[in-house]
């Protein structure tokens, strides 16, 4: 009985430690430098979980947006007379 009470107390303590919601993709999109740091931490193994995925998605989308901008330019139509 005592071990059951101890196990329940430990479970409740561990559950409350992880109760904070992971920062989402939108957060990391707005804070790209922080997202890059989280991605680096995840690669090093010092961080893990949903934040790794969310930060990776935000960084990947930002890189894709930059590649598209380089490829397509600023979005203005090409004018051969200029």
Explain what you see.
Helices cover 71% and strands 0% of the residues. The protein has a domain at 21-72. The termini are far apart. It has 82 residues and is mainly α. Mean pLDDT is 80; it is low at 4-16.
Low-confidence parts, pLDDT < 50 over ≥5 residues? 4-16
Q: How much is the average pLDDT? A: 80
H-E order: HHHH
Main beta-sheet strand count, sense and barrel state? none
- Number of extended strands: 0
Portion of residues within helices = over 70%
Structural class: mainly alpha
User: What percent strand?
Assistant: under 5%
Radius of gyration: 22 Å
Number of helices: 4
End-to-end Cα distance: 85 Å
Shape: elongated
Structure characteristics:
82 residues; 0% strand; mainly alpha
Q: Briefly, what is this?
A:
With 82 residues, the protein is mainly alpha-helical.
Describe the secondary-structure layout.
Elements: H1 2-17, H2 25-30, H3 32-44, H4 50-72
Helix pairs in contact: 3-4
């Amino acid at each position: 009985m005592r071990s059951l009470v101890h196990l329940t107390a430990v479970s409740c303590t561990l559950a409350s430690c992880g109760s904070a919601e992971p920062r989402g993709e939108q957060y990391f999109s707005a804070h790209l430098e922080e997202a890059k740091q989280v991605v680096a931490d995840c690669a090093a193994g010092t961080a893990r979980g949903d934040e790794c995925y969310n930060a990776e998605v935000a960084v990947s989308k930002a890189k894709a947006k930059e590649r598209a901008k380089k490829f397509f330019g600023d979005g203005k139509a090409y004018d051969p007379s200029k």
